[in-house]
Specification:
This protein has 205 residues and is α+β, with helices and mostly antiparallel strands. The chain is built from 1 helix and 10 strands, in the order αββββββββββ. The protein has one helix at 8-37; strands at 60-62, 83-92, 98-105, 117-123, 127-132, 135-140, 146-149, 155-165, 171-180, 197-203. Strand 5 and strand 6 (135-140) form a beta hairpin.
Length: 205
Amino acid sequence: MNPLNRSPLRRALESLTSTRVRILLTLGIVLGLGTVGTMAAWTDNSTATSGTFSTGTVSLLINNANPYNFTNLTLASMLPGESRAATLQVQNKGSIPLKYSMSATTPAGSPALTGFLQVTVFPGALPTNTTTNGMRTGTCTGTQLGQATLAAGASVNVITTVRDLAATTGVENLCFIAKLSATAPTAVQNQTLSAVTFNFSATTV
């Protein structure tokens, strides 16, 4: 039909319908774009938490003490060839295994007597001290661990091969013999060595 021949009412209805379709199409486009732009995504997170971290301890004791006063290893009025034996226990009270070695040190200004005193160490042995014909002798059983002649005002290594001690409960009994050399000269008589310090060095490596 020729648009010019349509009635005014029909033309008005057709115009209204066309406008409504355009509005709906426009809304459809807007809603479609809005849906794409605001789409929600489901998310989640997960974590892993470590345990605690702590350091171990190294605690080397001698007869449950540090320092330990080793008064059992002493002998007065010594004669050449005489000796004295005494024992102590090396203990690991720390939380990790360790290895130890030992040296012996005398004070500065120690007398010449020092160079004629010999220290010998045995593992896991009990000391025996006897007197025969006025001669005092100290002995230890077992295989010798180390031996050294003392040096005045200096340190000497006695146990050079490291010994292992387990963590917490590791112990080792050591038997010491201190002996005045049978060749000690008359020049060292009436001398006194005030002390010998046995240095136990522990390491975890």
